Recover the amino acids of this structure.
């Protein structure tokens, strides 16, 4: 499907250009949100297993709207990740969420895999 094409290409971009380890990616897994089962497109974890980034993908002909963001934000209520990405393959939006201030900010580009998630004093974290 066109959405699957966007997902696969975006995952390759994250791996090759932004250094996200494929082993820390979960694709199309179910989560419980307000007692209902939902399926996210992509979830990336830190090396210690904490959710770091959630992404929602749409087909290129689907315009990214507030409804698209609302969908991924609903999924994130259960996960509380730091980064949210929405893409249709033509447009990409990334946000960083600050839970202490209950706010978010748009990022100028897709963030790289955080250095703090790569290594710790005891090896990988």
């Amino acid at each position: 499907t066109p959405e699957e094409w966007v997902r696969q290409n975006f995952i390759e971009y994250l791996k090759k250009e932004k250094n996200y380890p494929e082993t820390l990616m979960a694709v199309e897994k179910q989560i419980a949100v307000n007692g209902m089962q939902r399926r996210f497109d992509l979830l990336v974890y830190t090396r210690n297993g904490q959710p770091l980034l959630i992404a929602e993908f749409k087909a290129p002909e689907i315009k990214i709207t507030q409804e698209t963001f609302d969908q991924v934000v609903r999924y994130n209520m259960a996960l509380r990740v730091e980064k949210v990405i929405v893409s249709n393959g033509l447009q990409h939006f990334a946000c960083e969420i600050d839970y202490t201030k209950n706010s978010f900010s748009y990022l100028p580009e897709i963030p790289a895999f955080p250095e703090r998630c790569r290594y710790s004093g005891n090896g990988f974290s």
Summary: The first strand starts at residue 25 and ends at 27. Confidence is low (pLDDT under 50) at residues 119-125. The radius of gyration is 14 Å. The CA atoms of residues 33 and 77 lie 7 Å apart.
